[in-house]
UniProtKB/TrEMBL annotation:
Protein name (record): Polysaccharide biosynthesis protein
Location(s), subcellular: Cell membrane
InterPro entries: Poly_Biosynth_Transport
Topology in the lipid bilayer: Multi-pass membrane protein
Domain of life assignment: Bacteria
GO CC terms, sorted: plasma membrane
Residues annotated as transmembrane: 20-41, 47-70, 91-111, 155-176, 182-201, 222-241, 253-278, 299-319, 339-359, 366-383, 395-415
Length: 428
């Protein structure tokens, strides 16, 4: 294990450059596989199997990942003074993963259909829970100034487990076997890509002290609740489709979200680099520059969304049909309006993420949480009613409408916070 860890760490040269390149590579590979894996299942085993996997992996699996993750990465990576040791972060993450396991069992037995759907749900949730546990190691790599190790871990864990998944999927034609293989592959890759390298790093403290659970819970609870509610609002229409429509419909509906994921991936590449700049502008009290930066990024997101909508109108259905196969592609032909609604909703979601970060910088976390609480109730109600009355058209309308509403609420809140912020009060 020491030899594997040393090989994974590599040389001590060009660490800053490797941090950037490997972080981008890891994020891109993770996002790409998350978007396309369900399409591969649909193309290989049909729309019904694709719908089961799409929901288990992309919808419920991502929700349960948030429980395992528990908002800890921002806390851990910014803990430069090591108020908590790695051993304490790891122990806390084991507790959050245990909570995720219990949540999965509860949801599976209460709401999931028995048989293959429930088995796939449990296996993919286990995969995502292990992903949440591995993030504790990735966070420690970043805290130790070696973000490139987190990027490597993300890239190789994803590639390794997905390779096992695809090999078993094509050979056995069994979704359950493929998901079980991915789960085992994920566990093995965590040993190679996380445990081994970290054991070779100096000055990583593993002791645990009394009171660490209470301390870390206090730091992460609001981040967890905000992220959990945010993801539920984003996925509420998917939950409703899974509940009231067929597994095949679930596959078709999640497939039309793929272009939205591309827009959000591109938007995040634009948003994240300017967060430090926005923080500096606030510290200087430069309100005009702050507003200009937000307007510039918001305009870029608007252009990306219009470009994506135009491409979707012309090429969206044909390209998605190539991904999911001929049979599923025929069903997608009648969903062009739903596709455009989802893409517009994705543009609003990217914009509200920009405004979310603005409110974080302006220290309005309580206001963010209130918006999410209101949005959760409205998202559930609109998704339930929309899908029951209008099927997938209702789901798409619910999603787009909720993203627009949240964007407006975040915009109003940001404008109010700018007026009231003490660091900007000296501005005209």
């Amino acid at each position: 294990m020491n030899g594997i860890g040393s090989f994974f760490i590599g040389s001590e040269t060009n660490i800053a450059k490797r941090n950037v390149l490997w972080n981008m590579a890891g994020s891109f590979i993770y996002a790409l596989t998350s978007m396309l894996l369900g399409a591969v299942v649909t193309r290989t085993l049909g729309a019904a199997a694709g719908g089961i996997f799409f929901f288990a992996f992309s919808t419920f699996g991502q929700q349960i990942f948030i429980v395992a993750y528990f908002g800890m990465r921002p806390v851990q990576v910014t803990d430069a003074g090591e108020q908590a040791t790695f051993g304490e972060y790891r122990a806390f993450r084991l507790l959050s993963c245990a909570a995720a396991v219990l949540s999965t069992l509860g949801y599976g037995f209460l709401f999931s259909a028995s048989g293959e759907a429930r088995t796939v749900l449990f296996l993919t949730a286990g995969y995502k829970i292990l992903d949440g546990f591995a993030d504790c190691y990735d966070s420690e790599f970043q805290r130790q100034g070696r973000l490139y190790l987190a990027g490597k871990s993300n890239a190789f864990r994803t590639l390794g487990s997905v390779a096992v998944f695809l090999a078993l999927l094509f050979v056995t034609r069994s979704l359950v076997a493929a998901c079980l293989g991915a789960l085992i592959g994920q566990a093995g890759m965590i040993l190679l890509c996380c445990v081994a390298p970290l054991s070779c790093l100096p000055n990583v403290r593993t002791e645990r002290r009394r009171g660490y659970i209470r301390h870390l819970f206090a730091k992460s609870r609001w981040l967890f609740l905000g992220a959990f509610l945010d993801l539920y609002i984003f996925a509420a229409s998917k939950y409703a489709v899974n509940r009231y429509l067929t597994a095949a419909d679930n596959s078709y509906y999640t497939t039309i979200f793929i272009p939205t994921s591309v827009i959000n991936l591109m938007a995040n590449f634009v948003i994240r680099p300017v967060l430090t700049l926005l923080s500096e502008q606030r510290e200087r009290g430069d309100k005009a520059a702050f507003q200009a930066t937000v307007a510039k990024i918001g305009g870029l997101i608007f252009v990306l969304t219009l470009f994506g909508a135009g491409l979707a109108w012309l090429l969206g259905i044909p390209v998605l049909s190539l991904l999911v196969g001929v049979e599923a592609g025929k069903a997608l032909r009648g969903l062009r309006t739903e596709l455009l609604l989802v893409i517009l909703g994705g543009g609003f979601y990217a914009l509200l993420n920009l405004l979310y970060y603005c409110l974080v910088i302006l220290e309005r976390q309580g206001l963010i949480f209130l918006i999410y609480v209101l949005g959760t109730g409205l998202a559930w109600l609109s998704a339930e009613q929309g899908v029951q009355r209008f099927g997938m058209r209702g789901a798409a309308l619910s999603y787009c409408g909720m993203m627009l509403l949240l964007t407006l609420l975040f915009a109003i809140s940001t404008a109010q916070a700018l007026r009231q912020d003490s660091k900007f009060r000296g501005e005209a």
